[in-house]
Amino acid sequence: MHIPDGLVPPLWCGLGYAGTSGLLWWSCRRLQRATVDALAIVPRLALLTAAFFTASAVYIPVPPSSVHLMFLGSLGALLAEGAMIAVVVGLFLQAVMFGHGGLTTLGLNALIMGIPALLAAAIFRGVWHRCPPRGRSLLGFILGAGAVLLAVLLFGAVILLSLPAILDQQREWLAISAILIAHLPLAMLEGVVTASLLVFLANVKPEFLTQGVSFSRENSPYPTADPH
After folding, report:
1. Cβ(109)–Cβ(91) under 8 Å?
2. How confident is the model at residue 54 (pLDDT cuts 50, 70, 90)?
3. C-beta of residue 80 within 8 angstroms of C-beta of residue 45
4. Sign of the CA dihedral running 145, 147, 153, 159
5. CA–CA separation, 20 vs 222, rounded Å?
6. Which pTM value belongs to this model?
7. Which uninterrupted H or E stretch holds 130?
8. How far is CA 82 from the centre of its chain?
9. What is the full DSSP assignment across 32-62?
10. What is d(CA 210, CA 139) in angstroms, rounded to the nearest whole number?
11. Which tens digits make up the pLDDT trace of 31-41?
12. What is the pLDDT of residue 168?
């Protein structure tokens, strides 16, 4: 589900880079303004970026196409605003090493996957600590599955709006519908994986979840450990 080079007009590529640059600037500002040690997020960022990059290399055949895991819900829950950084780095490596997507469309692809991850982060930050333990599995499932479905919808919207009107719209709809249907099983799988991961961490290492809610100690609804 990557937009390759040459599929969309240059104007759309420029808009994609502009939007991604703005979100990256915002994410980096959040890191700079962190009252806790900003460098503490780097190992987690590197680990989850590697997981995002590696998961994309595992293709799951879903006729008539194939899909791969994205971990967008998990990235949002565990990295908060840093999820945008992980998505950009992961997509860049995928483009230069495997040819997934393109460098000219890197901005658009980053928006398609980064926006769902950031929304998952916002929902996790606002709901997780208020959610009863029995409801956290459902919340994790919604974060994982919802992020994938939103990414697919954004992908379809970009394709429909950017392609020339002279193309056969019926075939466009058929192709996009096939992509949507092919990603439904993936969304269910990502929902289960995200729910299992979050519930597991909540049971065995809950501070791993609270530390990723916000880079800012002042804004975090959780007590944080005294670094001294």
Report:
1. yes
2. confident
3. no
4. negative
5. 30
6. 0.83
7. none
8. 10
9. HT-SS-GGGHHHHHHHHHHHHHHHTT-EEEE
10. 16
11. 777 655 666 77
12. 67
